[in-house]
Design goal:
8-stranded mixed beta sheet, alpha/beta, 6-stranded parallel beta sheet
Length: about 375
């Protein structure tokens, strides 16, 4: 059996299916609009054929014209379908489709198993196509032998939208990167902070950190309220500061309020390969998310990055996926409660750090790949029966 993933541009998609032992060979297809392709790869052209990137793992990158996913899709799908056929030859294969737009490529293919892999409410990605996407997604779920969602809430939403396929919809969250998982809570506590943090963390007070997106999904006003209540805490925010030129007045007000706090420090972009050393440098890790549809339907990679450090985590009560782990995460609804939880986290049950690491180790991409392979085996058996 071969496995074709359309598309594998998302880090978690690539990591999951590259480690899924269901197939002997995997093709990770990566179509991008040519400007994004240039920014990512430094060249305008894509790959003429799949190129090996691992044992039995192949990658093929496509540089496409603007609007290819909607307005140019009828032509693009023929090109992509030809690449699929060239890769699989006459062997049986599974196709994984990650966007509802891709469903019609099935008219050009004859896979032995169809998987829909969902990681967003895609109406947030393309609001101008919201109604069309909702209808296309229902058709996608009906066409798929197996639907996998990274967020539990999406399994519920899609199951309600297509009740006849509810039993074929499964939850497999984003995974932990093994390189970011601490050897032990003691090792995490004794690690030295990166040089960029040493001056900020040289004091005696509590340090609370966040590294990730700082755009509309991040609640600046909420964290400003926390920082105002805890002047004794040093708050450190890593990530590219957002472009506020087209932000709403409420969001911009919260952002400016947070920037004015003397105990809040924005440190800019953090290289991905250094993420683990940054996160283990803080006493407490923060997850203050904004109330929006995107966050309600998300599985934050941040949650899994954090659990792998063993460090205490304090989140606001916004993301349902985070609430699934409320035995390991301090979830509070208001800035006042959140501020108090910072102290609770420092006097927590001493078994919690080890329990976080245990959960992280059971959610590496290798472990999730095996879980996914079992779901695909069941779907393949059901289709054949």
């Amino acid at each position: 059996m071969k496995l074709v993933v359309l598309d594998a541009n998302a880090y978690w998609t690539e990591q999951l299916f590259a480690r899924c032992p269901f197939a002997d060979q995997v093709l990770l297809m990566k179509p991008r609009e040519m400007r994004a392709h240039w920014q990512t790869h430094g060249q305008l052209w894509g790959d003429g054929r799949p190129r090996p990137v691992g044992d039995g793992i192949y990658e093929q990158r496509f540089s496409l014209l603007p609007g290819w996913m909607f307005y140019g899709w009828s032509l693009t799908r023929k090109w992509l379908a030809r690449s699929v056929r060239d890769f699989v030859g006459t062997e049986p294969y599974t196709v994984v489709l990650c966007f509802p737009q891709y469903r019609t490529i099935l008219s050009e293919l004859a896979p032995d198993l169809i998987v829909y892999y969902n990681y967003d409410d895609y109406r947030d990605n393309w609001p101008e196509h919201a109604d069309w996407l909702a209808a296309a997604e229902r058709k996608m779920v009906r066409a798929a032998d197996c639907t996998i969602c990274i967020a539990r809430r999406r399994t519920q939403v899609l199951g309600e939208a297509v009740p006849s396929r509810a039993t074929d919809i499964h939850h497999v969250p984003i995974g932990c990167t093994p390189e970011f998982i601490a050897e032990s809570p003691e090792a995490a506590r004794s690690s030295s902070p990166p040089s960029a943090l040493q001056d900020l963390l040289s004091g005696e007070g509590l340090t609370a950190g966040y590294v990730g997106t700082l755009g509309y999904r991040f609640d600046h006003a909420f964290l400003a309220g926390v920082a105002e209540r805890r002047r004794d805490v040093t708050f450190v925010l890593g990530g590219t500061e957002p472009d506020a030129s087209d932000a709403s007045s409420d969001w911009l007000s919260g952002y400016r309020r947070l920037k004015q706090q003397p105990n809040v420090h924005f440190i800019g972009w953090v290289p991905h390969d250094e993420l683990g050393s940054y996160l283990t440098s803080f006493d407490v890790l923060l997850m203050p998310y904004a109330r929006c549809r995107f966050n309600r339907n998300a599985c934050p990679a941040k949650l899994w990055d954090y659990l792998g450090t063993s460090r205490p985590i304090v989140a606001n009560d916004v993301v349902p996926e985070v609430a699934l782990w409320d035995d390991l995460v301090y979830i509070r609804d208001t800035p006042t409660e959140f501020a108090r939880a910072l102290d609770e986290a420092m006097t927590e049950d001493p078994t919690l750090p080890d329990r976080r690491l245990e959960v992280a180790r059971s959610h590496t991409y290798s472990e999730l790949g095996r879980r996914t392979a079992a779901l695909l085996e069941d779907a393949y058996t059901a289709r054949a029966s």
